[in-house]
TrEMBL record:
Protein name (record): FAD-dependent oxidoreductase
Family membership noted in the UniProt record: Belongs to the flavin monoamine oxidase family.
Binding, FAD: S14, E33, A34, V253, E441
SUPFAM superfamilies per record: FAD-linked reductases, C-terminal domain (SSF54373), FAD/NAD(P)-binding domain (SSF51905)
Domain (Amine oxidase): residue spans on this chain: 13-463
Swiss-Prot/TrEMBL cofactor(s): FAD
Keywords in alphabetical order: Oxidoreductase, Signal
InterPro entries: Amino_oxidase (IPR002937), FAD/NAD-bd_sf (IPR036188), Flavin_amine_oxidase (IPR001613), Flavin_MAO (IPR050703), TAT_signal (IPR006311)
A single MF term (Gene Ontology): oxidoreductase activity
Source species taxonomy: Bacteria, Pseudomonadati, Pseudomonadota, Alphaproteobacteria, Sphingomonadales
Source organism, top-level taxon: Bacteria
Length: 468
């Protein structure tokens, strides 16, 4: 068996960042990555129309660690150019004008609910009742009574059934029943910090619940959202290149055996690595398939690993040869309660000619699509879009498609915490289990997105640095 001070399992941003920091402390690290490439949920696909980020791409202005790593590795940033074109709604197989929703006969909501844009219902309710002011308060036992679902919150606050139904359609990806409000508010509260940075407007007026847009407001040369020139995966690739032969790709970990003195990590190819410490930088969807044996058991940690739910996102990336929305007069982008979810038309800033677009499937829509084989899913979403908008026929050129639940190294796109799980284990689930430490975006305390992966990599490096 090869010997190291620390074996890190998973070469996403969290694993790579912990490796960078522990190496800087003089420790011998080995990073084991199941995939052929590093990066995990930061993945850039080369297409006929250039690189497309099928995972993370948006870097917020307050992503201190990500921005620092981008600079350290000599990468170049550009302001986000994925501005979404105006959103409409397609509900009960009918096109709906959100501006006149209040008077629409399909609107079954009551009182002041009637004026809420139907595709923003989930978002609006979440924002209205968010009691958190600071980014760490989601873990504060003072808020433990809010460890409930969005449906339970809406029932408690007296919303109509029709409003609850709309929220189920527009709840931001992770479901009206499946996710604790504390998990949702953690992200919302962290997001509001970004908007407080210097001259950024306090609240950006938006007509859609996803895809935060660049506000075109530069602060210290930085847009509110930036992208990496050439694709976001350049960052993990540069981090891994610097770590040299410490990073091993094609190494699928199958078993971790540990006691208080060290751990032995075995891969499916028969190779074994022994170390004083081990870091799991894996989503729990895949960690739960790894056999963990320990001289001292940790039932609460096992519960977290085996039960934490994950949401899915599936996206189809398209080139639109001509803006068909000019022909049918409907909004370029839309949210629907139908089987393809959302269509995002991306502004090319001329209004004419080719545009990029995405079909974005989240929540129940993504679950249904994930049950299909790749080609079947592709054909289905394209034909469904043309059924809804015949003017799009012949104008959609397929670029690439990614369904994160079908990626065997991910089995989902992002963690969730079910109602009751913040109180059950979220406060302590990042504590080390014997010599195993836990990194990954799902072990965040304060941050979100890529920055939370970096935050967790930093935390485990400090934990191990203090113990070594
Ligand atoms: C569609 C999508 C869009 C996103 N957009 C943004 C965005 O715009 N901005 C933003 O900030 N964040 C975004 N995110 C979130 C961001 O990508 C993640 O928070 C972050 O990349 C997670 O990093 P991680 O290290 O925690 O995990 P991962 O990136 O999941 O890394 C885990 C690694 O473990 C490896 N692995 C799995 N099983 C094994 C095994 N048995 N043995 C060894 N290795 C294994 C995997 O291959 C992977 O490389 C997005 C995510 C998705 C899915």
């Amino acid at each position: 068996a090869e010997q190291a001070d620390v074996v890190i399992v998973g070469a996403g941003l969290s694993g790579l960042h912990s490796a960078e920091l522990l190496s800087a402390l003089g420790m011998r690290v080995v990073v084991l990555e199941a995939g052929a490439q590093v990066g995990g949920r930061v993945q850039t696909v080369q297409t006929a129309d250039g690189p497309i980020d099928v995972g993370a791409s948006q870097i917020g202005r307050s992503y201190a660690r990500v921005l620092d790593a981008v600079r350290r590795h000599g990468l170049e940033l550009i302001p986000e150019d994925r501005d979404l074109l105006g959103f409409g709604a397609h509900l009960q197989d009918t096109w709906v004008d959100p501006a006149d929703w209040e008077n629409n006969p399909l609107n079954g909501t009551v009182g002041d609910e009637r004026a809420i844009n139907p595709i923003l219902m989930g978002q609006a309710v979440m924002a209205r009742h968010n009691p958190l002011k600071e980014v760490d308060e989601w873990l504060d036992p003072r808020f433990s009574a809010s460890d409930i679902s969005l449906r339970q919150l809406m029932q408690r606050e007296g919303y109509s059934e029709a409003a609850i139904e709309l929220a189920a359609m527009s709840a931001p990806g992770i479901g009206i029943d499946e996710t604790s409000m504390l998990r949702m508010w953690q992200e919302a509260t962290r997001g509001s910090i970004d908007r407080r940075v210097e001259s950024a407007p306090a609240e950006v007026e938006r007509d859609h619940p996803f895809g935060e847009a660049n506000d075109r407001n530069l602060v210290d040369g930085l847009a509110s959202i930036s992208n990496i020139v050439g694709g976001c995966q350049k960052l993990p690739l540069a981090m891994a290149a610097k770590l040299g032969d410490a990073v091993r790709t094609g190494k699928r970990v199958a078993a971790i055996d540990m006691n208080d003195a060290g751990a032995s990590v075995s891969c499916t190819d028969g190779s074994v690595y022994k170390a004083r410490f081990v870091i799991s930088a894996l989503p729990f969807t895949v960690l739960r398939n790894i056999a963990i044996t320990a001289s001292s058991d940790n039932p609460l940690q096992r519960q977290a690993i085996s039960t934490m739910p994950y949401a899915n996102t599936a996206r189809m990336y398209l080139t639109v040869e001509k803006p068909f929305w000019k022909e049918d007069g409907l909004p370029a982008s839309f949210s629907s309660d139908g089987p393809i979810g959302m269509f995002w038309g991306i502004d090319n800033h001329t209004g004419e000619g080719q545009h990029r677009a995405m079909i974005v499937m989240v929540g129940k829509v993504a679950q249904a699509i994930s049950r299909m084989q790749h080609e079947e899913a592709e054909a289905f979403v394209q034909s469904e879009l043309v059924r809804m908008r015949p003017a799009a026929k012949g104008l959609l050129r397929y670029q690439t498609y990614k369904d994160w639940a079908r990626d065997p190294n991910q089995l989902g796109c992002g963690f969730s915490l079910a109602p009751g799980q913040v109180n059950a284990f979220a406060r302590t689930m990042t504590d080390p289990w014997q010599v195993m430490h836990f990194a990954g975006e799902h072990t965040r305390r304060l941050d979100f997105g890529m920055e939370s992966a970096m935050e967790s990599g930093e935390r485990v490096a400090i934990e191990i640095g203090e113990r070594a």
